[in-house]
UniProtKB/TrEMBL annotation:
<dbReference type="Pfam" id="PF24764">
    <property type="entry name" value="rva_4"/>
</dbReference>
<feature type="domain" description="Integrase core">
    <location>
        <begin position="147"/>
        <end position="333"/>
    </location>
</feature>
<dbReference type="InterPro" id="IPR058913">
    <property type="entry name" value="Integrase_dom_put"/>
</dbReference>
<protein>
    <recommendedName>
        <fullName>Integrase core domain-containing protein</fullName>
    </recommendedName>
</protein>
Length: 422
């Protein structure tokens, strides 16, 4: 005679309230992309989906949804081709083993570090030599924060701007980024028409706030005039929602020289190493190959229509890579290490950090937008309405091709040109 020792059907973790299969599968795929440990996956499920399960149930769910695992890699010949695809796309050969592993993980391909290194040793040894420790890495001083959302660092990046693209006749692509200091999480990264305009950066700041309806304790920026609205709105929101925080000890805004704003400046270095140099070479190739004519107004406007879209996809890809990549354990580092920026931002270890986000309300954010003279749509507009409408029709006429492959961007540009009749 069998005895049912668990007549309720509930285990030690209590009754389960599972999210839908689509949501659960997406969450498990995200955790695989970050290469989280079992304990970290269970923690994230509890925080993000109020689902507390044991390791065995987690394993069963991953098997059910066919979540990739580094212990079940594809056959060697297929795995090798995955690695070589990343190598071939890296014109400057700056992506190392960890970077390639993170990029592939975001694509759903889980490969062991040793396997990737062996492929690089055989097929791309020159890249390994270039990345030998000490070969040109920028040295940074240690920084510390209380936890996620204690300090956000913001600044513009102009390595793809008009001054950097000297052969392109005045066109360029400005970028603005915001990064959490403690977790190294990229909060916001966007291509903008001009990162020197206060109205534009004011809207970028409010876009960042709207993502989570919260602000950090402190925004760290440079001393340029473009942060005027950002400065005023951060101070106003701090006063409205956390007047009890000592502004002398924890100021709402700190302004320093860009070269000293190391968390965001260091990010530009990694962006260049991962994607930026390849992007710049590809952009300039349009002029050197005779596709783009700098003196032609139609060419300039079509560049401003097409390339911001192409770049934003690349920025989004970089953000996914960066936030999902694992930062190696550094015992002497005061900020987070040993996990991914995404995991540290969402689920910081209470023994190491405290969550510092200050909640705000949407109507207040809307009211602040109305204080900016230029609307968000106009401040983020790269081309005027009539040209944009013609370009939209031209893009549709050639079949609305995928813009995620930068190697095809100039071909798409060339196909659109015959349709640009104003």
């Amino acid at each position: 005679m069998s005895i049912n020792n668990n007549p309720t059907g509930k285990n030690g973790y209590g009754a389960k309230n599972y999210p839908s299969d689509d949501i659960l599968k997406a969450a498990l795929q995200q955790y695989a992309s970050e290469r989280l440990t079992v304990a970290q996956k269970r923690l994230r499920l509890a925080i993000e989906h109020s689902l507390e399960i044991g390791a065995t149930n987690l394993w069963k769910l991953e098997r059910r949804f066919l979540i990739p695992n580094v212990r079940r890699p594809p056959p060697d010949e297929i795995a090798t081709e995955h690695v070589l695809q990343i190598v071939r796309a890296d014109i400057n050969q700056r992506r190392g083993t960890g970077t390639i592993m993170a990029i592939l993980a975001n694509q759903g391909v889980m490969l062991p570090r040793d396997f990737i290194r062996k492929v690089l040793q055989v097929h791309a040894p020159e890249g390994l030599n270039m990345r030998f420790p000490g070969s040109g890495k920028i040295k940074r001083s240690q920084l510390s924060a209380r936890g996620p959302c204690h300090q956000f660092h913001a600044d513009g990046h102009e390595k793809l701007g008009a001054k950097a693209l000297t052969s392109m006749g005045g066109v360029g692509l400005d970028i603005y980024g915001i990064k959490d200091q403690w977790s190294s999480f990229i909060v916001h990264l966007v291509v903008v028409p001009n990162n020197r305009l206060a109205d534009t950066i004011g809207h970028v700041y409010l876009d960042m706030v709207e993502k989570t309806l919260s602000i950090p304790i402190t925004m760290v920026t440079d001393k340029g005039s473009e942060v005027g609205h950002l400065f005023a709105h951060q101070r106003g929101l701090r006063q409205a929602y956390s007047a009890d925080i000592d502004v002398a000890q924890f100021p709402p805004v700190v302004q320093i020289k860009s070269v000293h704003n190391t968390p965001i400046e260091g990010l530009w270095h990694w962006f260049l190493e991962n994607s930026g140099r390849n992007l710049k070479d590809t952009i300039v190739s349009g002029q050197t190959n005779g596709i783009f004519h700098p003196g032609d107004p139609t060419h300039a406007q079509l560049f401003n229509y097409l390339w911001p879209k192409v770049l934003q996809i690349q920025l989004d890809n970089f953000v996914t890579f960066w936030n999902n990549h694992r930062i190696r354990t550094q015992k002497s580092k005061p900020n987070m290490s040993g996990t991914t920026p995404q995991h540290a931002f969402i689920a910081p270890d209470p023994a190491q950090a405290e969550k510092c986000a200050i909640a705000v309300e949407q109507p207040v954010v809307d009211a602040l937008r109305r204080q900016i003279a230029t609307s968000r749509a106009d401040s983020m507009r790269f081309v005027v309405g009539p040209f944009a409408e013609v370009a939209d029709e031209a893009y549709k006429a050639i079949g609305s091709p995928d813009l995620s492959n930068i190697d095809e961007a100039w071909n798409i540009f060339g196909m659109m040109l015959p349709h640009m009749h104003m």
